[in-house]
């Protein structure tokens, strides 16, 4: 008779151990999920604060306007955070081809590319043929497209 009580006690203790380990595992996984969501929300908040607009007139001459076989466009920082006025800030695609020969310079008296400031972006594109073209700029997750004609 005493052996039945001991067996029940052993099963009860085993059940408590299993329940405690499951609860511990769930708690640690929920904590890791919460941390991952927090990190992602910071990344998204940074992307939301980064916003740009191409302000060049697509009807004006953007190709070879200043010589050197460049596509020259003006880009305004319309977001709430300052951005670096460097070629590495931009991902540039010209007619679907990724371009790395890019130069960036601040326009006017700007000392940095803050909100409302404009940069001149030059994409070296030798031998661009006559016709319609498409320039796509990506800054963080913000995408801007300019269609122009040569």
Automatic annotation (TrEMBL):
<dbReference type="InterPro" id="IPR002774">
    <property type="entry name" value="Flagellin_arc-type"/>
</dbReference>
<keyword id="KW-0282">Flagellum</keyword>
<protein>
    <submittedName>
        <fullName>Flagellar protein G</fullName>
    </submittedName>
</protein>
<dbReference type="GO" id="GO:0097588">
    <property type="term" value="P:archaeal or bacterial-type flagellum-dependent cell motility"/>
</dbReference>
<dbReference type="InterPro" id="IPR013783">
    <property type="entry name" value="Ig-like_fold"/>
</dbReference>
<dbReference type="Pfam" id="PF01917">
    <property type="entry name" value="Flagellin_arch-type"/>
</dbReference>
<keyword id="KW-0969">Cilium</keyword>
<dbReference type="GO" id="GO:0005198">
    <property type="term" value="F:structural molecule activity"/>
</dbReference>
<keyword id="KW-0966">Cell projection</keyword>
């Amino acid at each position: 008779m005493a052996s039945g009580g001991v067996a029940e006690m052993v099963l009860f203790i085993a059940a408590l151990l299993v329940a405690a380990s499951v609860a511990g595992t769930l708690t640690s996984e929920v904590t890791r999920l919460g941390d991952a969501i927090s990190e992602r929300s910071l990344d998204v908040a940074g992307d939301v604060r980064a916003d740009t607009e191409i302000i060049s007139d697509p009807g004006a001459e953007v190709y070879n306007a200043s010589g050197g076989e460049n596509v020259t466009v003006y880009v305004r920082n319309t977001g709430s955070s300052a951005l670096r006025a460097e070629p590495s800030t931009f991902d540039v695609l010209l007619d679907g081809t990724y371009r790395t020969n890019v130069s960036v310079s601040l326009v006017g008296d700007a000392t940095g590319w803050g909100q409302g400031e404009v940069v001149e972006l030059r994409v070296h594109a030798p031998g661009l043929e006559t016709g319609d073209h498409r320039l796509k700029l990506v800054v963080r997750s913000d995408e801007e497209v300019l269609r122009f004609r040569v």
